[in-house]
């Protein structure tokens, strides 16, 4: 089956969602990262969802079971590189979600032009995100989850000030503590400690490398003793 642009647009108009998702990116020490995504949920036509996933580099979720209903399967296409060609293809044929698609494309183009998190780029991204939240809101209640540039700045400042370079040098090099020991001392996981060591371009100590070296298995030990060579 070959998907036509008209059919795909009608499918997303009826069964899809076009928007921007907010998530926490611990790897890059960012509290709020925004990424565009398109999602389609259906109870049947698994072959159709698989074709959408393979064509636009998406992924299928596990079956979602709701009370007294048939299982639902979802396909998600996320990221600037994957969402942009999909929306450019179906934009002329969209009816219900055309405004959302235009906003998401503006968000992608703004991100590509900005190439970073300067104030102008970030402010425009937040405006588009909040407008999409209002468009996709259901019901008559208050819209939750709106962002402002102040809370993003404060969350990033909080992450950035978790460790200073002088403090890490004192604990890691002078006192000779391992990353897990520093994490226990600070009451966090080992991930932030490792991330800040990379951020400050600090090399791992010999003790750290030795502590992570995998233990020799029983059979490798027996072969090393028998042959006199390390396997």
Element-by-element helix/strand order: HEEHEEHHHHHHHHH
CATH fold annotation of the largest domain: Endonuclease I-creI
Adjacency order of strands in the biggest sheet: 1-2-4-3
Mean pLDDT comes to 79
Please describe the biggest sheet, giving its number of strands, its sense, and whether it closes into a barrel. 4 strands, antiparallel
Kindly, what is the distance between the CA atoms of the first and last residues, rounded to a whole number of angstroms?
A: 52 Å
What is the CA-based Rg, rounded? 24 Å
Give the uncertain stretches in residue-range form: none
Structural class based on helices, strands and sheet pairing: alpha+beta
What share of residues are in beta strands? 5-15%
Number of helices: 11
CATH superfamily of the largest domain: Homing endonucleases
The CATH class designation of the largest domain is: Alpha Beta
Examine the secondary-structure arrangement and name the CATH architecture of the largest domain. Roll
Architecture overview:
By secondary structure, the chain is of the alpha+beta class. It has two domains: 5-158, Homing endonucleases (Endonuclease I-creI); 162-212, no CATH class. It contains eleven helices and four strands. The protein has helices at 5-15, 46-55, 80-90, 98-114, 119-135, 149-160, 165-174, 179-186, 190-199, 206-212, 218-227, and strands spanning 16-25, 30-42, 59-60, 73-78. The protein has a four-stranded antiparallel beta sheet. It is extended, with a radius of gyration of 24 Å. The model has no long low-confidence stretch (mean pLDDT 79).
């Amino acid at each position: 089956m070959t998907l036509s642009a008209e059919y795909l647009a009608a499918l997303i108009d009826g069964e899809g969602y076009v928007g921007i998702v907010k998530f926490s990116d611990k790897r890059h020490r960012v509290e709020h990262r925004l990424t565009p995504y398109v999602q389609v949920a259906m109870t049947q036509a698994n072959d159709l969802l698989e074709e959408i996933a393979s064509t636009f580099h998406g992924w299928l979720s596990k079956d979602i079971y709701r009370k007294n209903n048939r299982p639902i399967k979802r396909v998600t296409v996320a990221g600037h590189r994957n969402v942009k060609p999909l929306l450019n293809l179906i934009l002329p044929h969209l009816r219900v979600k055309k405004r959302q698609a235009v906003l998401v494309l503006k968000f992608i183009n703004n991100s590509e032009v900005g190439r970073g998190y300067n104030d102008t780029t970030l402010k425009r991204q937040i405006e588009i995100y909040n407008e999409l939240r209002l468009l996709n809101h259901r019901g008559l209640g208050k819209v939750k989850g709106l962002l402002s540039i102040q809370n993003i700045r404060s969350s990033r400042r909080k992450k950035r000030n978790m460790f200073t370079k002088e403090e890490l040098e004192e604990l890691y090099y002078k006192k000779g503590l391992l990353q897990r020991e520093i994490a226990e001392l600070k009451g966090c996981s080992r991930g932030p400690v490792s991330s800040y060591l990379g951020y400050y371009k600090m090399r791992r100590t010999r003790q750290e490398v030795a502590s992570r070296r995998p233990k020799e298995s029983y059979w490798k030990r027996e072969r090393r003793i028998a042959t006199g060579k390390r396997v």
